[in-house]
């Protein structure tokens, strides 16, 4: 059944309002992508003890953290750059699993997409050594401020403190 014109207009207005509400600030330049992102399906994952946290700091640093109770605790930090189509993350990852640990250079490309529910960052699939931090699930914009969601992790929730943590991580040997 086709939508009536007033109903269609109301639906379009609601969509426009939702996009405006969920779009990150500031609106111009690469910093527009800064903020906290949650992995898609996070509610179901958290019920199973799996947590992901991605934060893009406005100054160009990032923290990507993954936690899977009794299996893995991994962190990647470094710098990010954004364009209209992509976010590029480069830095260092420390992967700690119940089967071993390693520290290696980290690089991930994320495709930028804006849909009816807001901003999504979709990882470009590739074979990697990043544990949970290499999963193919997209990340959805959550809010501008840091919002760590990993229980028991020593992750600050202030922008300045989080940037200090990101910058204090030594690089991995190539």
Mean pLDDT: 81
The end-to-end distance, rounded to whole angstroms, is 59 Å
Note the overall shape.
globular
Q: Assign a percent range to the helix content.
A: 10-25%
Stretches where pLDDT falls below 50 for ≥5 residues? 9-29
Strand content: 35-45%
Q: What is the string of SSEs from the N terminus onward?
A: HEHEEEEEEEH
Q: How many helical stretches?
A: 3
User: Nearest-angstrom radius of gyration?
Assistant: 17 Å
Largest sheet: 8 strands, antiparallel, barrel
Strand adjacency order, main sheet: 1-2-3-4-5-6-7-8
The class by helix and strand makeup works out as alpha+beta
The total beta strand count reads 8
Describe the structure.
The protein is an alpha+beta fold and 174 residues long. The protein has 3 helices and 8 strands; from the N terminus they run H-E-H-E-E-E-E-E-E-E-H. It has an 8-stranded antiparallel barrel. The longest helix has 18 residues. The chain is globular. About 12% of the residues have low confidence.
